[in-house]
Amino acid sequence: MSVLRRCLYPGSFDPVTVGHMDLIERAAGLWDEVIVAVLRNPAKKGCFTLEERLELLQACCAHLPNVRVSHFEGLTVAFAKELGAQAMLRGLRAAGDFESERALAQLNQMIAPEIETVILLGRPEHAAISSSAVRELGSFGGDISALVPACIEQRIKQHFKPTAV
Ligand code: PNS
I need a labelling partner for 103 at 20 to 30 A (CA). Which of 63, 112, 135, 159 fits? Predict the structure, then answer.
């Protein structure tokens, strides 16, 4: 009996960027199934609601048949176990990401040694791209076309459009 190789890609995705999508597409080629999951954090009010983040991710992942989008609360490793995932994916853009990712991966390893954290290096052209850059640039009406997938660019722009009073 073959076991489905499943990977959980957790994150805030507030909102999803081209860097996240590059990782998701590469992961889709490495695992049988990839679950991209947004952390619901009641203590932290994001820029996009959980529902908006999920919708944006779903629109971006529609072309990937072995990728599904989900959400969770609490410990990521607990959700990984619930899903039957053997691995957890994180991305590393540059050296600055290393320390926090090392701590996260080693903490998770202590809590659940059976879940392997796999870290993929982002592409050099995505090194400066982050959700916070999208939020900052977007809120000032800057050009976000190189930062977010084309299919959601208009929705993101709409989000930042000032509402008429
Ligand atoms: O996209 P982010 O914000 O870098 O994602 C961070 C995330 C959600 C993966 C991380 O904060 C997390 O796993 N939070 C859930 C709580 C948890 O499991 N913490 C690690 C062990 S204490």
Answer: 135
